[in-house]
């Protein structure tokens, strides 16, 4: 089998890349180890930056997002028993974010690829990549047979546990990493969200977050130990803990309801560089992980996709290689700024083990500053809605 761009992984990065390349007349094949049902139901964060939502709409996969996505013009930071609104619209000249679940983005992209006759092989596991400097090949297993996909370029969109990053020779690959001493216990609950906007809370007992998926479904998180046993968290214990952390002095009440799903997510910051080796490019979680505070994972994956699409277009239309040559540096500039923001939000809002009184007061001062200084609130807002792009994607 042969194609122009061989894409490993049908997460947001791989599917969006395949979709945008198709719109530019560039052919691709997507290999995904999981089933279609699995990827269309995987629960992940659900906040789209303005630029991500706009790109979906402009590229023709935004109809459902426009109908069902919830547009938010701000968030609340809560600490010391009181809430403080960060007004994105006011601070960023009218920008907003859209709350729309990641698996809905996946469904929309899979449907668009299918409607355009795009090739996605599900339950097709890439086992190795070869000849990255000359004529790249992907070996994959599908339906009990081992097959080969020959391509001009390989896009490694295979997430944190994929094979592409480790195909870069160890003497070339550099890893920068921070593992946090806490995790998030997340739930989906069948209850009307207790607020129209997201609430990020810093409390003596740890961080908590109120988010949502729809007007009927709430998504909530609370900080816990990384080795916490989910079996020890009854529904009652979860709701009591959330209510305690989110309580305000004026008696705000968190409504509870049946918990549909619960799980624990570890937290890390991770960057692998370079993001290109020969004719193989890394995108999204294959190259970088951010902690979920600020919900940047999907948005950063889509930012890589914009850069690679533009570079491949320059190559196929004009034979220009400079975009491809600079792919890694271009992506990493944004990656590090988003890493900084995600690390800062995480550090500001979580209780660290053995936090002493000095660190605790710095936390409170940081929160006081961001909620009382227009300059600092603007810095939060412009990062949250998404830093601007230097160039359009095509
Ligand atoms: N062969 C084929 N597919 C693979 C292989 C392999 N060897 N290894 C991994 N995959 C698939 C996974 O099954 C997964 O569907 O690659 C896909 C990677 O998708 P994501 O993990 O969603 O990564 P990405 O597209 O970079 O999206 C980043 O999504 O992971 C979330 O929270 C993350 O929001 C972030 C965003
Ligand atoms: C979510 O809705 O899942 C979500 C929202 C905001 C975050 C992280 C996750 O910062």
Labels describing this entry:
FAD/NAD(P)-binding domain, 394 residues, globular, binds adenosine-5-diphosphoribose, binds P-hydroxybenzoic acid, alpha+beta, 12 helices
Description of the structure:
The chain has 394 residues and is an alpha+beta fold. It has 2 domains: 196 residues, FAD/NAD(P)-binding domain (3-Layer(bba) Sandwich), CATH 3.50.50.60; 89 residues, D-Amino Acid Oxidase, subunit A, domain 2 (D-Amino Acid Oxidase, Chain A, domain 2, 2-Layer Sandwich), CATH 3.30.9.10. The protein has 12 helices and 19 strands. The strands form 3 sheets. Strands 1, 2, 8, 9, 10, 11, 17 and 18 form an 8-stranded mixed beta sheet that branches. Strands 6-5-13-14-15-12-16-19 form an 8-stranded mixed beta sheet. Strand 5 and strand 6 form a beta hairpin. Helix 1 packs parallel to helix 6 and helix 11 packs across helix 12. The two termini are 28 Å apart. The model has no long low-confidence stretch (mean pLDDT 96). It binds adenosine-5-diphosphoribose and P-hydroxybenzoic acid. P-hydroxybenzoic acid (PHB) binds next to loops.
In brief, what are we looking at here?
The chain has helices at 12-23, 36-41, 50-58, 63-68, 88-92, 102-115, 235-246, 297-318, 322-325, 327-349, 357-372, 374-385, and strands at residues 2-8, 28-31, 47-48, 70-72, 74-79, 82-87, 97-99, 119-121, 124-130, 137-142, 145-156, 174-189, 199-202, 208-212, 218-224, 259-273, 276-277, 280-282, 288-289. The chain is α+β, with helices and mostly antiparallel strands.
